[in-house]
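Exercise 7. Predict the joint structure of the components listed below.
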Amino acid sequence: MEELAIEHKIISKSILATDGKIRIIKLELLAPIIAKNYLPGQFVILMVTQNGERIPLTIVDTDTTRGTITIIFQEIGYTTKLLGNLSPQQNIYHLLGPLGKPTEIKNFGKVIIIGGGVGAAEIYPVAKSLKSVGNKIITILGARTKNLVLLEPELRKVSDEVYVTTDDGSYGEKGVVTDVLKKLLTQNEQPNLVYAVGPIVMMRAVAEVTKPFGIQTIVSLNTIMVDGTGMCGSCRVTIEGKIKLVCCDGPEFDAHKVDWEELIKRNNIYISQEKEILEWYKL
Amino acid sequence: MKKPLIQPKEISVEQRIYNFDEVVCGYTEEQALEEASRCIQCKNPKCISGCPVGIDIKKFIWYITQKDYPSAYYTISEKNNFPSICGRVCPAEYQCRKTCVFTPKDRNVAEENAINIPLLERFVGDYARKHNLALNLTEKIKTNPKLINTKVAVIGSGPAGLCVAGELARLGVKVDIYEALHLLGGVLIYGIPPFRLPRDVLYYEINLLKNYNVTFYTGVSVGKTLPFRELQKQYNSIFIGTGAGAPTWLNIEGESLCNIYSANEYLTRVNLMHSDKFPEFHTPINVGKNVTVIGGGNTAMDAARVALRMQKIKGINGKVTILYRRTQEEMPARKVEIDHAKQEGVEFKFLVQPVKFSGDTRGYVKSVLCLQCTLGEPDSSGRRRPVPIKGSEFEIETDLVIIAIGLKANQILLSTLPELKTTQDGDIIVNPETMETSIPNVYAGGDVVGGEGTVIEAMGMGKKAAQSIVQKLTIG
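Solution:
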């Protein structure tokens, strides 16, 4: 069990995309056991330092030979900025995973996969796995602007078709992912599954588009967590009127059953503290 | 005439509500000697039968009267590796103090005058810590040659797991403990606030296990990080002590409004993540001005007292109110904790049942609708059942709610083990004689078996499991 006692060292780091003050960072972390037992759709909880906050991040890729996992994140709050400031060879204090239920990987037939913002990175392992079992993969990638379009070449390799949208029209089609989705649903043969990861408002919009068509739609939710093992209920969401925990029952849920209003409100609960800590540390 | 109980000193309310320092002070040597001298050294002491781990209470108290504190410590250590922890958190009034000869036989709770065994145990434990007596202890240990080269995995580093590890390791078994969180102790660290169990005490007694060659792996959620099968291949036996770490909800309207926390979440944010020191520590928490805690157990008292301290620390002039469906008499919380909460200014509303939460436009809780109750016939727990009065609805304004109505067994590991027999509530079913589960060589104890119990009950189960494991490993 010596592999369990290793420090979680940063093996490599790259700035995947940048636009103005926004940075999207890719880190490869030493975590052989997590890499070995990981399945697509799962996430880790990490603490950057001993004083750190526990935050969930989706595992984007693994390399079992190198014993590493890859995470991709946008520097938004204090913890992600702290994480983004680390250099290769530095350790993070704590890493727990792989957590959450894995994605159901089977041949659905035709699947539309939608990634918005950093969600584009999170759909990659799912697209890859769904492709490998024979699905037809249509990928819709959304970003604010050209510089922030993520993993397009990688996603092209595992997709049959790729559409890119940018809010400002600097690349691909001008607009949002649901514009393309609407077109695809009305013009073409309908998919058997829609899978979406991105900002909550985007996932809600996807759910609204697919609902009238009765298309099965899965979303991977990102909520505020503490332990990540079903202990605290911080990450609870209401699914068809019932309390579910994103850490253990999720992170994936039927998009048509999620109480989106509540989720959006709950995810904003610490907005003032986020500001306070950034000012405190002058980050 | 019997001498009265020696009362420990307590930090004054004005002083203690602004920090998380320990409230109850330990005995001084003089106090310990005086309290120990009240013990009449019964020929046939009943106190020992009241201790879930069977500490020779009579003997260790006698050693105190002789001022031979090391021998008192070694006596306790024969049965319990954690005297400073247990001396602080044991609800002794339902255990050894209840069976003390000073408590009349028909009582269900100890007489006030019963010997204060936990404070004496704490005195000895604290003395041992100050004088590092545990080092001598490791030299005294006789390992069992038959147990060399045996390996046991313990899942969960709470009271049950720590007890199993200590018991086995000192006999020479190689023990590895797997803990999902970044710090050890389970409920002792995320649940019990530092004002009841200071962290230096906790860490000290946990770290002593390293002297016995126990290895701790943090950040490992068995069933997720590595499959249970993997452990079965590598270890002779496995002990599951994953606790009752899953919150219970009221299942009423509005329960997921912002600023409604489970007690587990609120306590974890402060006790484990140090939200009280935000932003030096990075985990945020919200501090209500008008906090409502729902429940009547020790967790509710802890949550209320933590919430109150958060208000004081943040300079908020607010209040904390506990809502309970029955009356104080039926409250499962320890009397001493109810008293502490009351002294500190926590308000209590009895015979109140929440039925609905309402929120403001931003989604934050603003009130809880309640029904007034009366007490009916006793239910299965033996306590009188709360009966809501029709049409008695009334609204209580609140801006932060903590739900502390109980915990269930955590299923994160259990859900990966379909062959493991559990009750309808998800507790593991064991053979009560051996603590062995339906999977051979897999044992379980603590709250994952018994539901929400006490630290020492968990340790008692751990001890029993350790004995069965040893028996099986030595006899085969």
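Discussion. The mean pLDDT of chain A is 95.
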